[in-house]
Write a structure and sequence with these properties.
The complex is a heterodimer. Chain A is an alpha+beta fold. In chain A, about 35% of the residues lie in helices and about 15% in strands. In chain A, strands 9-15-14-17-8-16 form a 6-stranded mixed sheet. Chain A has a 4-stranded antiparallel sheet with strand order 10-13-11-12. In chain A, helix 6 runs antiparallel to helix 7. Chain A starts with 20 loop residues before the first helix and ends with a helix. The mean pLDDT of chain A is about 85. Chain B contains 2 helices and 4 strands. The chains are: A alpha+beta, B alpha+beta. The interface between A and B is medium-sized, with 20 and 16 residues.
Chain lengths: ~900, ~80
């Protein structure tokens, strides 16, 4: 894309000031006196709100002030003005006006400080300015000093008490001050006293805070829209200005005709109201001005303020072109750095390609190929949507259609730009909101796929925090070569496998990948050769050739051998698997549970592959491959491992259903007995408490002791139930395989389903709230027993009793509320952190500085270590070095 | 109150107070050259900071601070002494 070079200048300073009435008149293109916009023929009325001297909005029309057209010539529009019949207070400045009145004398206009006090303050002020310190505190002090004085130190006039009636009226000793009076007063304040009132004489005079003339913004600021019915609809600002002019006119007429003071005052008030709402329609204390439909008008302040205001939605954030959004769905056959883009989207989004002598033939081809006969048989052929011709500084965009494609291709010139549709292998940025960390936006290679959803590999769900219950995601097509290179180097998925949070992988096998590897590698699984080859076919010709073991009339490959096909030859690792039971006496290299993994020279010799090997966050093999062989190898490993695991799990078959939670009658009896015993124990505790025989724990009251003891018993009961259930749930059970291998769920989940749900808690305590002295009307008042306070003895499978169900809902509700509160609070915290840190960066010399050049740290993080590349926070992995050196000998 | 009471212990020996020294003019020049930085872009320390008072640092001087660090053993930073109120 062509970029016009412009002179860049550094902004030295920005000064905000007040518009003086003279300035308003000087910049005004016309005085506005007519409250109407267009006459009956649809032409703008002269000296009306749509006067062509204020600029034009329709294309083609020329502005009467500058003679330019909108858009092409860039007529920016011109201000007009309304002369107010009577002065009106500006709402935004009412606080400053109050301060000025409080600290000056009404008679002589001088500041209410003695000459000495004044000089002291002025000297101090200079001092502050020299040091570049904020003078806010000092000025506040000066005003409080003024308010204290009872008499003007110069003319001796008694100082009145100034009160502010929200939003725009002021009283002196309870007597209302009209805006005219306020203005007269402010006019009296001499220039030399202004610095103490925090007013810079060069930019403002206090009386300018009371409006005598109102600037009318150009029509370009408040364009009117023509509806399909031919009706015109005016902008909210225009509506408000109509009100202002109408009242202003009536006020003028009434005053000139010598109407009674009361009527004039009423109209004056009304004018004040209209101007106040014109400036800010959410001023507290007055009803907001409404549209005919009842919708509050969006006036000046509303255009700027808040999330939908100019700043947050148009300046800090913008809408972009070359982007797409749709629902996401999974596709395990894509690589983790690919993304499936629907054909419809691929045909709409484009990449610009400049036509050169090197690629002109290719460009001609691509323009025409979409409409050739051969392309009919193909699912997707990229074409060209537009070509941009540049002749004598004129840019022309021509749409390519089936009709003109041939013609355009023949006349194609070097130097034009073609906007080519997406092709396989283009780079795009893929993003899911909320973008909480940098892995929320990564670069993927495009693969064009049928149907209407974005498709991607399941392993990249965790970094995006995506699932497929209807989530939508955004895609941004990269338009330039530099951007493409940068994205490829920094943002590709494989560059982001390691998280800067802790230096470990956050992309790895999940769910079925882990179950699949577990099935493949647990114990010595012998897989007949033909089946093994079927599983291995998923990874094509990648990896090593596994060893085939021949026995009489049966040749097989072990599951471990199949998995080893993917391991690099120089891989040596020993660690505990997730399935490790933490036996009291660890028989480590010879674990009877197959939970100690040993990999020697790229061969898995023993142990089971599970979450601790290939999972995100803790996958040891994954971690090692990335460190030793780089990100690309890591990506390849994840791709292949997942393909192999999916192939294995589909081949073996894997299913779970409610009967996975079946336990024998004997076990059920045991659990019931255990629960009964616990109930008895609790009953005894309650009895002991009621008889006053319970001994309190140190530092606890009797009640607290009882609660703690009961919680302990209920906790133990659940564990007991889980333990008994677990004994009968072996590794021949899919649900248990998932829990033990770390694929999904936990043994706690299983024991709650088959054994006993356990104690429900709200705020970490047993459930106490509800009715008077009891939780539910099903219980006696004062009942402290287990079931009356939220102990659920049933299992999910057997079903909960009504009271248990109620308690369970209470406990579940707490969890929901917690997450809702947490997300909103942490979101706001994050926003503030981002705003504080957005311009801090590490410079080339290793220092951390912010945009102003201030040094924050002399070496990043005191040690200059990139946490992404650290070994769980440490710069070097000492243990690794020691073992490496030892083995080298 | 204790404000006027003379300090009866050496704050520099407290384990939470890192090691501070004043840079010589030569060292100061070297530092500014090394980081291509103007003095007012350095972190600041007030001249009435207890440590500044103790080591006698005057506005305009630069103090070198050597902190203990968990990750880097020692972390060196510099602060420009500025005038208080």
């Amino acid at each position: 894309m062509e970029r016009t070079r412009s002179v860049t200048k550094k902004i030295g300073s920005i000064e905000f000031s007040l518009l003086s009435p003279n300035e308003v008149r000087r910049m005004s293109a016309t005085k506005v006196i007519t409250a109407d916009t267009y006459d009956d023929d649809g032409f703008p009325i002269a000296m009306g709100l749509m006067d062509p001297r204020l600029g034009v909005v329709e294309p083609g029309l020329r502005c009467k002030t500058c003679g330019q057209r909108v858009g092409k010539d860039k007529c920016p529009g011109h201000f007009g003005h309304i002369d107010l019949a009577m002065p009106v207070i500006h709402v935004g400045l009412i606080k400053t006006i109050r301060n000025c009145l409080r600290s000056t004398c009404r008679e002589c206009g001088r500041i209410l400080l003695t000459e000495k006090q004044k000089d002291d303050y002025l000297a101090e002020l200079k001092h502050y300015e020299r040091d570049g310190r904020s003078n806010a505190g000092l000025l506040k002090q000066a005003i409080t000093d003024c308010v204290k004085s009872e008499k003007c130190p110069r003319c001796g006039r008694e100082v009145g008490k100034i009160e502010l009636d929200k939003p725009t009226s002021l009283r002196e000793n309870g007597k209302k001050l009209t805006p005219s009076e306020v203005r007269e007063w402010l006019e009296k304040i001499p220039d030399e006293d202004l610095p103490l009132l925090d007013i810079n004489r060069k930019t403002a005079r206090p009386e300018w805070m009371v409006l005598t003339v109102l600037p009318v913004p150009p029509v370009t600021v408040r364009p009117s829209v023509t509806l399909q019915s031919g009706e015109r609809s005016e902008d909210d600002l225009t509506h408000k200005l109509v009100d202002v002019i109408r009242i202003n006119q009536r006020l003028q007429e009434n005053r000139d005709a010598g109407a009674p003071q009361l009527i004039v005052e009423d109209l004056w008030e009304l004018l004040q109201y209209h101007i106040t709402t014109y400036l800010d329609n959410q001023t507290s204390g007055i009803p907001p001005a409404r549209h005919r439909s009842g919708r509050p008008l969006k006036t000046l302040a509303q255009r700027l303020k808040g999330k939908e205001g100019r700043f947050r939605s148009n300046l800090s954030g913008k809408r972009v072109n070359f982007s797409a959004r749709t629902v996401i769905s999974p596709d395990p056959n894509l690589s983790i750095n690919e993304i499936g883009v629907p054909i419809q989207i691929a045909e709409e989004l484009t990449v610009p390609v400049r036509v050169t002598s090197h690629n002109i033939d290719w460009c001609r081809d691509i323009i025409t190929q979409k409409y050739s006969i051969e392309s009919l048989s193909k699912a997707y052929v990229p074409g060209v949507n537009y070509i941009i011709k540049e002749t004598e500084g004129m840019r022309r965009r021509i749409k390519v259609t089936e009709k003109n494609a041939q013609d355009i291709a023949e006349k194609l010139q070097i130097g034009s730009i073609i906007e080519r549709q997406l092709m396989e292998g283009d780079i795009a940025l893929f993003n899911r909101q909320p973008s909480l960390h940098r892995m929320s936006m990564m670069a993927h290679r495009i693969k064009v796929v049928p149907h209407k959803t974005f498709r991607f590999n399941l392993c990249v769900c965790p970094p995006y925090n995506a699932d497929f219950d209807g989530d939508e995601m955004n895609l941004h097509i990269i338009q330039g070569e530099e951007a493409k290179a940068e994205a490829e180097l920094l943002m590709k998925v494989q560059e982001n496998i390691l998280s800067p949070r802790f230096g470990g992988a956050i992309i790895g096998g999940i769910h079925d990948h882990i179950s699949g590897c577990f099935l493949l590698t647990h114990k010595q699984r012998k897989i007949p050769v033909e089946n093994a080859l079927h599983i291995l076919s998923a990874i094509g010709d990648e990896g090593k050739n596994p060893k085939i073991i021949e026995e009489e009339n049966f040749s097989y490959i072990t599951g471990k051998e199949i998995f080893s096909a993917l391991l690099p030859d120089d891989l040596n690792l020993e660690y505990k698997a997730k399935t490790c039971l933490n036996c009291e006496l660890c028989q480590a290299p010879k674990c009877p549970h197959n939970a100690y993994v040993i990999i020697k020279n790229g061969k898995l010799t023993q142990g089971t592959i599970d979450e601790n090997s290939i999972g995100a966050f803790k996958g040891r093999i994954l971690d090692r491959i990335i460190r030793d062989h780089g990100m690309d190898a890591g990506r390849e490993f994840i791709d292949n491992v997942t393909k192999l695991a999916i192939s294995a799990i589909t081949f073996f078959g894997f299913t779970t259903s409610i009967d996975d939670e079946d336990i024998p009658e004997e076990a059920k009896r045991q659990i019931a007995k255990g629960i009964e015993k616990a109930m008895e124990k609790i009953e005894n505790l309650v009895k002991a408490y009621e008889d006053g025989q319970l001994e309190s724990l140190p530092g606890r009251s009797l009640e607290e002791t009882l609660e703690m003891e009961i919680m302990r018993v209920t906790g133990k009961t659940r564990d007991m139930a889980g333990e008994i259930a677990g004994r009968h749930l072996g590794l021949n059970n899919s649900a248990v395989i998932m829990a033990k291998s770390g694929a999904r769920g936990s043994m706690l989940n299983l024991s709650q389903m088959s054994g006993c749900v356990g104690q429900q808690a709200v705020r970490g305590e047993r459930i106490h709230r509800g009715y008077q002295y009891r939780t539910l009307p099903h219980f006696k008042q004062g009942d402290l027993g287990a079931s009356a306070k939220g102990f659920v003895a049933s299992s999910y499978k057997s079903g909960l009793s009504p009271t248990e169900y109620f308690f369970h809902s209470m406990g579940g509700r707490e969890g929901l509320v917690d997450t809702a509160v947490r997300t909103s609070r942490s979101g706001y915290m994050q926003r503030r952190l981002i705003n504080a840190l957005e311009d801090v960066k590490v410079e080339n010399d290793g220092t951390v500085r912010h945009a102003g050049g201030q040094i924050i740290q002399f070496i990043y993080g005191e040690d200059g270590i990139d946490p992404t590349r650290s070994i769980s926070g440490n710069a070097v992995d000492i243990n690794r070095i020691i073992t490496d050196v030892k083995e080298g000998i | 109150m204790a404000t006027e009471k003379k300090q009866n212990f050496d704050i520099m020996n407290h384990e939470l107070v890192p090691f501070h020294t004043i840079l010589s003019d030569h060292e100061k020049g070297e530092l500014l050259k090394k980081y291509h930085v103007e003095t007012n872009n350095l972190p600041k320390i007030l001249d009435n900071d207890p440590v500044s008072v103790f080591i006698g640092a005057k506005p305009g001087q630069i103090v070198k601070i050597v902190r203990k660090s968990n990750t880097a053993k020692e972390a060196i930073s510099y602060r420009l002494v500025i005038e208080s109120e």
